[in-house]
Amino acid sequence: MKKRIVSVLIFTALLAACSESQDKVTRVEGEVQSTVAESSKGVAELEKELADFDKEEELIAKELEGEVTTLKFDKLTHDFGNVKREVENTTSFRVTNTGKQPLIISDVSASCGCTTPKKPEKPIAPGKSDIIEVTFKSKPEQLNEIKKSVTVTANTKEKMHVLEIRAFVK
Questions:
Q1: Under 8 Å between Cβ of 168 and 81
Q2: I need a surface site. Which of 46, 56, 70, 152 has the fewest CB within 10 A?
Q3: pLDDT tens digits for 80-132?
C-alpha cells in the first residue's frame, strides 16, 4: 500500500511539474528538440517532498498502532448439521482479545435476514473473552445446504473478520 501511495505521489508531482512548465518543442533540420522551462520542480525538491510524506505516513502508522489490538476466535465456522425449517438454531463464537488495547467490536452483521448475530456491548479487556451469539432460522423457501456469513468489525489491523455458519435444512 505504501509503495502505491508513494508511486501516486511521485506521478502526481511529475504531472504537476510537467503541466506547469512551459515546454517548447522546435524542429531544427529534421531533429525535434524540447526545452523544459526552469520553473518546473527539480529532483531534489521532489525527493524532499517524498521524504516529508514518508515521515508523515510513519507518524500516522504509529498513532494507529496505539489504538488497534488483536483478536482470536475459538472457531471460524459452525455447522448446525441437519435442522428443521423455520426453527431457531443458536451457536456462540468466543472472541478473545490477544492484544494490549481494549477490543471494541463496533459491528456484527449477517449476510442474510435469516441469521441474527448479537455482539458484546462493552469493550473486551486484554486477555479477556466474550461471546458473539449467532442465531439461524431458515425461511420457508430455504432448503438443503445453507451457508451464511457473519462479518465482525473491530479495532484491529484487519478491520473485518468473517465467521461462517452452515446447516442442512430439511
A1: yes
A2: 56
A3: 999 999 999 999 999 999 999 999 999 999 999 999 999 999 999 999 999 99
Q: For residue 69, what is the DSSP state?
A: B
Grid cell of 106 as nine digits: 463496533
Pairwise CA distance, residues 119 & 121, whole Å: 6
In whole angstroms, give the CA distance from residue 3 to residue 7: 6
Enter the DSSP assignment of 151: E
Strands 115-118 and 160-169: unpaired
Number of residues that make up the chain: 170
For residue 53, which amino acid is it?
A: F
Global pTM reads 0.64
- The strand ranges marked E within 10-128 are 24-28, 31-35, 71-73, 77-83, 88-97, 105-110, 115-118
